[in-house]
Amino acid sequence: MAPETTHEQTFCWAAVEDSDGRFTGAPSEGGVTAVTALKQVVDNHGVTHMAAICAICKSQFSKVLPPYGFDMDMIVSVHQLVGMHWYLTRRTD
Predict the structure, then answer these.
(1) Predicted pLDDT at 12
(2) How many CA atoms lie within 13 A of 18 on its CB side?
(3) Which residues does 2 contact at the CB level (< 8 Å), separation at least 6?
(4) Are 49 and 65 in contact (CB under 8 A)?
(5) How would DSSP label each residue in 8-75?
(6) pLDDT value of residue 45
(7) What is the pLDDT of residue 82?
(8) What burial class does residue 35 get, using C-beta atoms within 10 Å of its C-beta: 0-12 exposed, 13-18 middle, 19+ buried?
(9) 3-class DSSP assignment, residue 93
(10) What pTM does this model have?
């Protein structure tokens, strides 16, 4: 993804606070930037999933992705990836 769409530039775009310091759950403009960048890497590199470090981001992206033509299950958490790796590589003997 483009450097301006990751790391500190958009971290954490989904956790928007209101004037009382409570999370509103309303995504900011960073979500549009991230979805645009996601579309580029899907089109150019065949990316199939995007991992979110934060549960709030995962929740927000699952709502934001469908209007852009992406399946809501495209967003996964880093914890899911670790769990899937463990499950797929565990020994059963």
Answers:
(1) 57
(2) 6
(3) 37, 40
(4) no
(5) GGTTTTT--B-TTS-B-----THHHHHHHHHHHHHHHH----EEESSHHHHHHHHHHSGGGT--GGGE
(6) 94
(7) 87
(8) buried
(9) coil
(10) 0.62
Structure tokens at 59: 């929740």
**pLDDT for the residue numbered 9:** 59
- What does the pLDDT read at residue 37? 84
Alpha-carbon distance 69 to 42, whole Å? Answer: 12
Low-confidence ranges of the chain (pLDDT < 50): none
Do 38 and 31 meet the contact criterion of CB atoms below 8 Å apart? no
Residue 17 is encoded by which pair of tokens?
A: 């606070």
β-partners of residue 23 are 17
Backbone phi, psi, residue 42, to 5°: -65, -50
